[in-house]
Amino acid sequence: MTSLTDALPITRVPRTGLPARAVVVGDPGRAAVVADLLSDAKEVSYHREYRVFTGTWQGTEVVVASHGVGAPGAVLLFQELAEAGVRTLLRLGTAGAIRPGIRDGDLVIADAAVRDDGVTQQLIPAEYPAFAAPEAVIALQRAARDAGAPYHRGVVWTRAAFQPGFLPLPGEAYAAAGIAAIEMELSALYVFASTHGLTAGGALVVDGANADELVDEDDPLSTGGYDPHRDVVAQGVDRGARIALDALRLLAAAEH
């Protein structure tokens, strides 16, 4: 572990020297699962929801780090990883399907995100877009294809509130526009990365449907209701972790 004097204040990661490429996830437990796939994995910090490992994936040095639930806290991780040397961040998360035909366990590779995240509106005007780096999208897509994994591309909806409240939601309009899925942090990553000269992408494993009309147990293309603790989701997360790590390897190879 890094000494307190040599660590950044929020995540307690070392101030310098982290590998340039990272996979970021929400759950600290998932960070440990992804880190178990690495060679020479080492936990370098664990403070609050921020659990950070380093290791090697097929010759590429990487960071695996957790950011917890919600965009405001996630931005703090992105900021401190960047300060410590990370230049490429791929988010591996879970999401609820919005577009018909997306199954549980499928991967959604996000070209862009709707900025309903609750934090970036306080950082930059609302008109500024949240978009992935094209090379990150292409690397994730190639890795998914190489793995033979079911995947979809599209725009996702990043929303700060997990549960609906008393205000009307634009869900029907987003569904009509072809939005693929809903999650909670990706637009913040995209805005942070593009405004700081970083490379970012996102791959989301579907853990249920966001709308009841998508749930049809007799339809093999349907998703079930929200339940992230099923085998089909765990298998999708394991597949997605390997895809995200392989995308980092592809991005590293493209730089040489």
UniProtKB/TrEMBL annotation:
Any Pfam family matching the protein: PNP_UDP_1
InterPro entries per UniProt: Nucleoside_phosphorylase_d (IPR000845), Nucleoside_phosphorylase_sf (IPR035994)
EC numbers for this chain: 2.4.2.3
Primary enzyme class: transferase
Gene3D superfamilies cross-referenced by the UniProt entry: Nucleoside phosphorylase domain (3.40.50.1580)
SUPFAM superfamilies documented for this protein: Purine and uridine phosphorylases (SSF53167)
UniProt name for this protein: Uridine phosphorylase
